[in-house]
Design brief:
Blueprint lengths: L5 H50 L1 H11 L4 H5 L2 H14 L4 E7 L5 E4 L13 H7 L4 E12 L2 E17 L2 E11 L1 H71 L3 E6 L4 E4 L1 H6 L4 H4 L11 H17 L3 E8 L6 E12 L5 E9 L1 H24 L2 E6 L4 E4 L1 H6 L8 E3 H7 L5 H12 L5 E8 L5 E13 L5 E10 L1 H62 L3 E6 L4 E4 L1 H6 L4 H6 L2 H11 L3 H13 L5 E6 L5 E11 L2 E11 L1 H19 L5 H13 L3 E6 L4 E4 L1 H7 L3 H4 L10 H16 L4 E8 L6 E12 L5 E10 L1 H50 L5 H32 L7 E4 H19 L2 E6 L4 E5 L1 H17 L5 E12 L2 E10 L6 H5 L10 H7 L5 H11 L3 E7 L3 E15 L5 H7 L8 E4 L3 H13 L4 E4 L2 H8 L9 E5 L7 H14 L7 E5 L6 H5 L5 E4 L4 H12 L26 E4 L3 H13 L4 E4 L2 H10 L4 E5 L7 H10 ...
Parallel strand pairs: 28-30, 34-35, 34-36, 36-37, 37-38, 39-40, 39-41, 41-42, 42-43
Antiparallel strand pairs: 1-2, 1-5, 3-4, 4-5, 6-7, 6-10, 8-9, 9-10, 11-12, 11-16, 12-13, 14-15, 15-16, 17-18, 17-21, 19-20, 20-21, 22-23, 22-26, 24-25, 25-26, 27-29, 29-33, 30-31, 31-33, 32-33
Helix pairs in contact: 1-6, 2-4, 19-20, 24-25, 24-42, 25-30, 26-27, 27-30, 33-34, 37-43, 38-39, 43-44, 44-45, 45-46, 46-47, 49-50, 49-52, 50-51, 51-52
């Protein structure tokens, strides 16, 4: 186009542009004017509203109150409307306000200047809604006709405003005002045309000025355009010539030259490129790499790379590879890519690629060689040095630096630095060797000492050679290596020294061996003699105890009797059967009944318990006149008092003699001068008494004594009389004697002391029991003090021997218990894994043989685990660690749980198990778990030793008081029975009736021993009655406090519901007398009459009478001889129907409820009752058959492995756990059984959550940051509102001491990690025994698990890991990934930081966490290493921690490295509806950020969609936070949930594109 054509185009375009600009500017100014006018009108309306609202505030409020509930007509007639109108009219007269309406907050028009509009509803109006929310709004409206307060307006332009009226910050009413803005609009319109004219004038002048400038410029351009065209033609010719030359040069270049456009397509290329692609340069133009056989992925990579470089606009060098289209060979290139824009501004890129294939292959070979060299050097552990002689700089590898403790980042040093490291004694030798090598000698080799940076000396082997010389042969470079030979040198020196020592020791050893042989023979003889003497000593102790005239009683620290001798039983007249019961309460009652003053006896015992270390002796007086001397001494092990030994000596005769002595002494005092003959008799009597007897006057002068006392004093009685103690004893001893004498003189009763004295006659020491009493005359004046002493040295020694023997026994028992507990713990872990994997295997498809094998494995494992549990219980009992609880329970629940354990076993043995319970409708206080354990042991024994027949469990109740009952339990069988000798040893541990019992029936013999201990710990006693071949009956009696009636429906309530049928009997048919008796008893408890028959014949006889009985129901046993239950039912139906009577419901009763035949006959019966029965089971079945209403819950006790989790549905459960992995595992396991939990991360958060909403149950981790579980529990227990809130501890510490710590702070139960859901269920039942069960049980969805062929990860037992997550492979893979990415990365640095800071608390927490997680995931070796580290951290042992921490890392690092393969195994968690869910989650996030309560409604809608996704556990955390209105926490949890969805969505889309 020539420039001469520009002028008309420019003129036209300029005119159009200026015209449009003027129009736009005019419209813009008009719009501004309109906006300003509207804002002015709205402001005026608002100000008017405020004035009217202030002036008429009371009138408006009164009108709104009166208008409530009025119809439209009534509103218009209200006097308040008229009064308000009269007041408003003058306020708006003369203003632009033409109408006012007032609305209440419900949108009702309560006032309008146009009365007809009063009563209209504006509730849905947008302007009203905004004003009610506190925001004024306005709009401009035009009306052809408008009814105003002053009349009708024609063609009115109005501004309508809705304005809120507020009082104390609250909106109380809404005003709607109409303002006439016609005049303002006219002014705006006039201003608009004035401004428009001005704009067009200005723009017209601008247009003519521009037009003149353009015309002048055009004339200049036309002149130069001719010259430019000539130059262009010449330039085009030159360009064509140079282009052809450029093409020729490019084609001859061996490098590949490419020009591509902005899409990555070829614009130009040379022959080198065309040859590579097996085509011509011209054929490549307009195409891309993929069109010439280049793989699609590689072609797309080329395109993406050039597009990215063009986008950045910077030159880049790229290393690429391509495929030779002719040979298929891969070629490597170094490509320089320069982006630029052409003359049209289009993106283009120039690529010059140089082939480096040969260089790449050579480089690969070099790298491989260097790699092998590095490996070789690393394997040898040698340091390498490289000395540049021209610069005197030596370069080293890192191993050389490590060898001498030098910083590995400093790899270059001057040669002088090497010299400083040489030992001063070896420096000259080493440097001479190096100089000789440099001067042309042989290779350098030297063994010398060098200095480490820490000051230590190391021996090295240093070698080197010259590898580079100049033209004159002068060395330029020397290379060598060095290795540490310190150990070799030390070993060589030690070997030499050892060799020399060996030669010296050979002769000495030979001599010593001869001596040692002789010594060994001597020691063997001594040991044999020692063992024989020890056996004799023990035998002597036992014989002495039995031979002594004293009765010996030994008790432990709790007051329980542990040992007595036969003399004790004889002295206290204790019958053997009472001793056999081992009931201390009965024994105490027997003792107290014989004493004259039992309260004195009890006070004395209590005082000694208050002072465990005190010794004592006193005298006991019996009702029958007997007198015992009682001695007591504490039993110690070391410094600890573990019991007390009591010795009783019958001193009746001595007491009588002493009384006679006292009487005679009194007579002597009174009648001293009366009868010398009587004095002689008294002296003879005193001489005959073996005890020491003396008498002093009030001044301490001896009046008389007997020869026994003379032996103590070392003098004859005549030499003692008239003297005092000072003449025989030291002053300090005499002072003590006088103090005792003064106490006796002042005491109204004799005083008794024990004291060690030295016999002056022969110097031996003895322990005397001394009785001193005051002797007074008839006038009450003190005559003197009489003393009687008995030597009890031998008794004291005997007590000491008993105490020592008991201490040794206790130490032995404690060691055995510790061993048993450790052994049981070590076996239990793999045994649980075997049983768990057996359960998982049985839940998969198996053929009959496989199912048989796996079932046998599980059965054998269960038996072994039962034995281990018995051993562990027994060890706890012996160690005194077994605790008995005192909690409310009902007997029916105990027997229901009992049935779930033993009923199926009874059925398999072909035995009928029956319960005969006198009453089970009271709440008892005791330990239901231990009671059930005793019953299970006894019933299991009865089933094991019976071959068919019956086993009867009977419970009889004796009401002691309103709050106490005695329950007598008995378990009877019809088995093999026992002899009296076998019964005698029956309750001993590891003991059975005879040695063949274990071989024939199995078992360890621990069950009965454990049962005896448990019964005694619960304050009862147990015994057995048995005869060979007739069976056995085991009895035990227990005392229970009662807590009123069971709050559930009891037997009385059941009977009341059946009362209307009390005149109709129930027919019972059963061939077993026991079952017949039990059924009759149960029916009579319900208040119904019974007709009993042992068989079909007798039953038919009972119904075929006149008049026939109106039976309420018939209970018929299934398995009966002659005629079975089904045939009996058929005959009864036929007989009753034939007589024209109504056939009652026929209920089949059986102990074989699992039998498959029942499915075939179920149509012939109306109900089924499974033995053993209870009144509740019978009532429910009768109620169902008779149509009686019942709300009594009943469980299927036959399903022995079913846990009724549904009873806990609806509970608010709070999980307190800081580790994300544990939270996910626990929430998944809880969700699988229909339970949902709230989650917090530590104890402080738990306290806040409880304060916000108190849960029904807390699952509390113990080791957590911020606040641990112990502190949190203690704070909860200190609060009266949460004192009884159930708390279950979750911790990896499962030892008895850890459990006691949990119980000490107030936790109710303890569940060890990894969590076993069966154990958790039992603990929840224990903490929540009376939770009402929902009508419909939870049914977990039967979704097929995702089965992946899992590889073997190093250090992880996948079987145990699967067991701990309930067999859920996806869950296990997820938690393994979390462990790898979280604890696997943070444990080491966090532990090192804590170690450097001396932070023991953090080290304990980290070790505890890694231990628990390792055991959960099946990383057993890591877990055991963590256990040892945790123990060291708890003991604050720095050296042990420093040594054990690397061992933990040695197990941890291979596990983390092996888990790198997890990402390929984890399937994308993309649900089919993720594209719909993700936008909803984003919308919910926005609501949470705005704190909009609409988030609660959206959460309810999302709950159903997310329930079935793998992310449901994360969603539960979000939902719980929203429910608590904790939007901040909910937003944080939602971000994690969205992050879990987004990668899955992206993975899904990528997969679609690939397909």
């Amino acid at each position: 186009m020539r420039f001469s054509r520009l002028t008309p185009y420019f003129s036209l375009v300029s005119f159009i542009f200026i015209f449009l600009a003027g129009v736009v500017l005019m419209v813009f100014v008009s719009h501004l004017e309109f906006d300003q006018m509207e804002r002015m009108a709205e402001g005026r309306n608002v100000s008017e509203t405020q004035v009217i609202g202030k002036v008429l505030e009371q009138d408006i409020e009164q009108l709104i109150l009166r208008s409530s509930g009025k119809e439209k007509a009534e509103l218009q007639d209200l006097p308040e409307v008229e009064r308000l109108y009269e007041k408003i009219r003058p306020l708006i007269h003369g203003t632009e306000i033409v109408k006012i309406k007032i609305y209440d907050l419900n949108g009702l028009t309560v006032f309008s200047t146009e009365t007809a509009q009063i009563g209209e509803d504006k509730q849905a109006n947008v302007g009203f809604i905004a004003a009610r929310n506190g925001r004024a709004t306005s709009e401009l409206v035009h009306r052809q006709q408008f009814s105003a307060s002053e009349g009708v307006l024609e063609n009115a332009d109005l501004v309508s405003s809705y304005v809120p009226v507020s009082e104390s910050g609250q909106v109380v009413a809404v005003f709607e005002l109409y303002q006439d803005v016609g005049k303002l609009l006219d002014q705006v319109e006039q201003a608009k045309w004035q401004i428009g004219g001005l704009i067009f004038v200005v723009f017209g002048a601008l247009y003519w000025a521009l037009l003149l400038v353009v015309r002048r410029a055009q004339r200049v351009i036309d002149k130069k355009s001719a010259l430019l065209e000539t130059a262009n033609r010449e330039l085009d010719q030159r360009v064509r010539e140079r282009t052809e030359l450029l093409y020729a040069v490019i084609n001859e270049i061996p490098d590949s030259v490419i020009l591509k456009d902005g899409k990555g397509d070829f614009l130009l290329c040379n022959r080198a490129v065309a040859k590579l692609y097996n085509t011509t340069p011209d054929a490549m133009v307009g195409k891309h790499d993929g069109d010439f056989g280049v793989p699609q992925e590689m072609a797309e990579k080329f395109r993406e790379n050039v597009l990215a470089i063009m986008a950045k606009g910077e030159t880049e060098i790229v290393y690429e590879e391509s495929i030779d289209a002719q040979t298929g060979e891969t070629r490597y290139y170094r490509s320089t890519k320069k982006p630029f824009r052409n003359a049209l501004g289009e993106n283009q890129i120039l690529v010059v690629a140089t082939e480096i294939s040969d260089m790449r292959r050579a480089q690969a070979k070099i790298e491989e060689s260097e790699k092998r060299l590095r490996y070789a050097l690393a394997a040898t552990g040698e340091g390498v040095w490289d000395w540049d002689l021209t610069s005197n700089v030596v370069k080293h590898n890192t191993q050389w630096c490590r060898l001498f403790g030098i910083d590995v980042t400093q790899l270059e040093h001057p040669i002088d630095f090497f010299a400083t490291l040489l030992h001063e004694d070896d420096r000259a030798k080493a440097m001479c060797g190096i100089e000789a090598c440099i001067k042309g000698g042989s290779d350098y080799a030297s063994e010398h000492r060098m200095l480490h940076r820490d000051g230590s000396i190391i021996w090295v082997e240093d070698r080197g050679r010259v590898v580079e010389c100049d033209g004159n042969g002068q060395a330029l470079r020397m290379v060598g290596s060095v290795r540490d030979i310190t150990e070799r040198k030390a070993m060589a020196e030690a070997l030499q020294a050892h060799h020399e020592d060996l030669e010296k020791l050979v002769a000495e050893r030979t001599r010593q061996l001869v001596v040692a042989r002789d010594e060994a023979e001597r020691l063997a003889r001594v040991k044999s003699e020692y063992l024989e003497d020890r056996s004799k000593a023990l035998s002597l102790v036992e014989a002495t105890l039995e031979a002594t005239d004293n009765g010996i009683l030994v008790i432990d620290s709790t007051g329980k009797v542990t040992s007595v001798n036969s003399r004790f039983a004889q002295m206290w007249q204790i019958p053997p059967e009472l001793l056999a019961t081992q009931n201390d309460d009965l024994l105490l009652n027997h003792v107290l009944e014989q004493l004259a003053d039992p309260q004195h006896f009890i006070r004395k015992v209590k005082s000694l318990y208050e002072k465990p270390g005190a010794t004592s002796h006193d005298t006991l007086h019996f009702k029958d006149g007997r007198v015992f001397a009682r001695f007591s001494h504490p039993q110690r092990i070391g410094d600890e008092v573990v019991g007390r030994v009591w010795s009783f000596l019958d001193i009746t005769e001595q007491e009588l003699a002493e009384q006679r002595v006292l009487q005679l002494s009194q007579v002597i005092a009174d009648e001293l001068e009366a009868s010398e003959h009587q004095r002689g008799q008294l002296q003879a009597l005193l001489s005959a008494i073996p005890d020491l007897v003396w008498m002093k006057d009030a001044n301490g002068v001896f009046l008389s004594c007997n020869p026994a006392f003379g032996r103590l004093m070392g003098a004859e009685p005549a030499q003692i009389v008239g003297k005092t103690d000072y003449e025989f004893f030291p002053p300090e001893v005499v002072e003590q004697f006088h103090a005792d004498d003064s106490s006796a003189a002042a005491s109204p009763t004799p005083i008794i002391r024990e004291e060690w004295v030295t016999y002056l006659s022969d110097g031996h020491r003895g322990l005397l029991e001394t009785i001193k009493t005051a002797v007074k005359g008839k006038d009450g004046q003190l005559i003197g003090v009489m003393g009687i002493a008995r030597d009890v040295t031998k008794v004291h020694g005997l007590l000491h021997e008993v105490e020592k023997a008991r201490a040794e026994a206790l130490l032995s028992s404690e060691a055995k218990s510790t061993f048993l507990a450790n052994m049981s713990h070590e076996i239990r872990t793999p045994m649980n894994a075997i049983m768990g994997m057996s359960d998982l295997c049985l839940s998969t498809p198996l053929n009959d043989r496989q199912r048989s094998y796996v079932s046998k494995i599980k059965s054998a494992s269960s038996a072994l685990l039962h034995i281990i549990n018995d051993i562990l219980d027994f060890s706890k009992i012996e160690a005194g660690k077994l605790q008995v609880e005192q909690i409310p329970f009902d007997l029916e629940t105990v027997f229901d749980q009992l049935s779930s354990v033993v009923a199926l076993s009874a059925e398999n043995h072909g035995i009928e198990l029956s319960y005969d319970i006198e009453s089970d409708d009271e709440l008892l206080i005791g330990d239901p778990l231990r009671l059930g354990q005793v019953l299970i042991n006894l019933i299991s024994n009865a089933l094991k030793f019976s071959a068919g027949g019956n086993v009867l469990v009977r419970v009889q109740t004796e009401k002691v008081s309103a709050n106490e009952s005695i329950l007598h339990f008995s378990v009877s069988d019809e088995g093999i029975g026992m002899t009296a000798e076998q019964v005698e040893n029956l309750f001993q541990p590891f003991t059975q009736a005879d040695s063949s019992t274990t071989r024939r029936y199995g078992g360890t013999g621990l069950g009965l021993a454990i049962s005896r201990h448990l019964v005694e710990m619960m304050g009862g006693r147990i015994w057995v009655e048995s005869e060979p071949e007739k069976g056995s009956t085991f009895h035990f009696m227990l005392h229970f406090a009662t807590n009123g009636r069971d709050r559930r429906q009891g037997i009385a309530l059941m009977a009341a519901r059946l009362a209307e049928h009390a005149d109709r009997p129930i027919l019972v048919v059963d061939d077993s007398p026991i079952s017949l008796h039990v059924l009759k008893h149960l029916i009579e408890q319900l208040g119904l009459p019974v007709l009993a028959a042992p068989g079909a014949k007798e039953a038919l006889a009972l119904v075929n009478v006149e008049p026939p009985p109106r039976l309420l129901a018939a209970l018929v046993d299934w398995r009966m001889p002659d005629t079975d239950g089904i045939e009996t039912i058929r005959q009864l139906r036929a007989s009753i129907a034939l007589a024209g009577n109504e056939v009652p419901p026929m209920i089949l009763v059986t102990a074989y409820s699992h039998h498959e035949e029942l499915q075939e006959i179920e149509k012939e019966i109306d109900g089924l009752l499974a033995k053993p029965l209870s009144a509740r089971h019978l009532y429910v079945e009768l109620a169902n058959c008779l149509g009686v209403a019942t709300s009594v819950p009943i469980k299927n006790r036959r399903k022995s492995n079913t846990l009724h989790w549904h009873r806990f549905q609806g509970l608010d459960i709070l999980l307190v756990e800081d580790i994300e992995i544990n939270r996910e595992v626990i929430t998944e396991l809880m969700a699988a059984v229909g339970l949902h939990v709230r989650i917090v991360g530590n104890g402080a958060e738990a306290l806040a959550a409880v304060e916000l909403k108190q849960p029904d149950l807390i699952l509390m981790d113990c080791q957590m940051p911020v606040m641990d579980g112990f502190t949190a529990t203690a704070k909860l227990r200190a609060n009266p509102a949460t004192q009884h809130l159930p708390i279950i501890a979750l911790t990896a510490n499962a030892l008895v001491g850890d459990q006691e710590k949990c119980f000490a702070v107030g936790m109710n139960a303890h569940v060890p990690k990894p969590i076993c859901m069966d154990v958790l269920y039992q603990r929840m039942v224990q903490c929540l025994p009376v939770v009402a069960e929902p009508e419909q049980a939870f049914s977990a969805p039967l979704e097929p698990p995702t089965v992946v062929d899992l590889p073997d990860f190093p250090g992880i037992n996948m079987a145990i890991g699967l067991l701990h997550v309930g067999g859920r492979q996806p869950l296990l893979l997820r938690v393994l990934k979390q462990f790898r990415d979280n604890q696997g990365q943070t444990f080491e640095p966090q532990f090192l930081v804590a170690q450097a800071a001396g932070d023991w608390e953090t080290r304990v927490r980290l070790a505890h966490s890694i231990k628990g997680l390792a055991h959960t995931l099946g990383a057993l070796d890591l877990g055991e290493a963590a256990v040892v580290l945790l123990d060291a951290a708890q003991k604050h042992d720095s050296e042990a921690c420093a040594e054990l921490f690397p061992e933990v890392l040695a197990h941890l690092h291979p596990i983390i490295a092996g888990l790198s393969r997890l990402d390929k195994l984890i399937e994308p968690n993309l649900s089919p509806s993720v594209d719909k869910i993700l936008p909803a989650l984003n919308a919910l996030s926005e609501l949470l950020v705005r704190r909009d309560t609409a988030a609660t409604d959206m959460a309810l809608d999302l709950a159903a969609k997310l329930k079935s996704t793998p992310q449901h556990a994360l969603w539960d955390e979000v939902a719980c936070a929203i429910e608590r209105f904790d939007f901040k926490k909910a937003s944080t949890a939602l971000d994690r949930l969205r992050a879990d969805f987004v990668p899955a969505a992206e993975t899904g889309r990528t997969g679609d594109q690939d397909d």
